[in-house]
Amino acid sequence: MTLSTAPPAIEPAELSWHHGVPESKQFGDGYFSRNKGLEGFRSTFIEHNNLPARFSSVPEAGSFVVAEAGFGTGLNFLATWQAWQTWGPSHAATLHFVASERFPLTPQDLKKALLVWPELGELAEELVASYPPLVRGTHRIVLAGGRVRLTLFFGDMHDAWNTLHFKADAWVLNGFEPAIAPETWQKTTTSETRQHSKPGTPEAPAPSVAVIGAGIAGCLLANNLARRGYAVTLIDSADEVGSAASGNLQGAMYVKLGVEFNHQTELALSALTFSQRYYDTYRDQLWHPTGLLQLAWSDSEQDRQRRFIERNQYPEDVLRPVTRQEAEALAGVGLESGGLWFPGSGWLEPGKLCKSLALHPCIHKVFGFSMEQMAISDGKWRLSGADSETPDIHADQVVICAGHLSPQLLPGSGTFRFKAIRGQVTHLPEPIIDSPQAVICGARYFNPTHDSQGQRLAVIGATFDLHSDEPDPTTESHRENIRELSAMVPQMLPTEMATGDLPEQLTGRVGFRCTTHDYQPVAGPFFDAEGQEMEGLYLLTGLGSKGLTYAPLLAEFVADQLTGQPSALPVSLARRLATGRMHQTKVAPS
């Protein structure tokens, strides 16, 4: 069947309804039987596979993986989730459900279809609230506070099994009848299911992980692992979490999607939609989904956005083009141009979020620890501090999340293709600016004002200083931020500020981003200069200026690898993050 939509959108299921039960117009088959759909699944799958006993025996920090060929209305997933609630272990453990769907239901149709099953109402409501936009590829949905993880592939089932990395404990293969959709079922071969099936009893997980670096990436990873039942030691040389670039008062949560829908754009889109779902837990507390406007602020950006709109089709709940008049209404301020409107984006309080994430009781925090040496000792990693009186830290696995300081911590010799980029933000007090209602991005980002440090401040930024290591805010960097902002939104700042007359009370903050030679993050097991994997050592860094957007998904991805659970990313995107490419002398892709 040929595609009728431009990337990355995917065609939704076309439905007809009979007494509240959906039927696929593409295949002429109903999704379930109103009389026996739920009970039939419980009998043929849950009881037949002895899931009550198998669920209850999952060990601490362990997982159970179910795979389904065809997600449909999500009924089978919800029934499995309900069974996990009933028979799953009382300790921390994770149910993974991996499914593909060529013609996904719209959120509206999904909600309507699941009304048939009121006993699943609370679970269905959470699923619908977290349902991803209808774009092709892999979506990771975290539910039940992390006890349930749904990996949902929108696209051809054969493509899903070729690109997803997982091993299933049980399979659901009772979708549409083979006689009705033979071309689909022929692709669900025995060899494919065998390839993704566990050979026997899953190995006991290694429960001890040290995370070095208590910025947004490290705190997200530590919290992710702690929720899965792992014992985590969070280490930083500073005296508290979020002390470096992640300690800013505000941060805009956005990405710049490429004109061509390639793997780089797909990774950015996956990170954007995942982070929007992740941060929703903190809505109106630390996360403020005001919407975000990417201005067509220059001739070149207008041309880029024109080509972007011509070549791509995105659901409107992801983004849509807006005129200048629409942009002004959405942002609540006068503007010079329209742009792209991202309704699910906004801004975050990253410093406060880091502190909240690190409060999990399974996270042991070690601050003021300046690491001197890292080595394997008796099968464990031993981390030694510069202070000889400080006890060594031992862990089965170590993840370096130390931003631009990461290369200094890696064992062995060699040169790495990381670079530190200084970024200074400027705090503008409300009386001297016209605050927008939404985040505005272009040459700079401009966040709405918010109560902070005893006054209402807006954060603008940030500079992109490749050749400066100045740790303190400078007047020149403030002047640069305001000059660029004034050129982008001239109506929103006093004229005298644009010409360099800065108010005395201006404050700001400096952080150093860590980026890579190809401006793509690094996440996964560490490979040395000879291409050999150093067992138990991982990297999560190089997130650049989009760390708030990329960090939730990449923390999920690295946590999957550490725990041996299904991967949140397909193989094609995981390759882009490979750590081996960071050596000055290129090694084979990992």
From TrEMBL:
Pfam families noted in UniProt: DAO, Methyltransf_30
This protein's GO CC annotations: cytoplasm
Span list, region tRNA (mnm(5)s(2)U34)-methyltransferase: 1-211
InterPro entries associated with the record: FAD-dep_OxRdtase, FAD/NAD-bd_sf, MnmC-like_methylTransf, SAM-dependent_MTases_sf, tRNA_MAMT_biosynth_bifunc_MnmC, tRNA_S-uridine_synth_MnmC_C
Listed cofactors: FAD
Superkingdom of origin: Bacteria
Positions of the UniProt region annotated as FAD-dependent cmnm(5)s(2)U34 oxidoreductase: 212-590
MnmC-like methyltransferase domain residues: 118-200
Flavoprotein keyword on record: yes
Listed EC numbers: 2.1.1.61, 1.5.-.-
Span list, region Disordered: 183-205
UniProt keyword annotation of Disulfide bond present: no
MF terms in GO: flavin adenine dinucleotide binding; oxidoreductase activity, acting on the CH-NH group of donors; tRNA (5-methylaminomethyl-2-thiouridylate)(34)-methyltransferase activity
Domain named FAD dependent oxidoreductase: residues: 209-560
Subcellular location: Cytoplasm
Protein family per UniProt: In the N-terminal section; belongs to the methyltransferase superfamily. tRNA (mnm(5)s(2)U34)-methyltransferase family.
The protein's name in its UniProt record: tRNA 5-methylaminomethyl-2-thiouridine biosynthesis bifunctional protein MnmC
Record organism: Marinobacter antarcticus
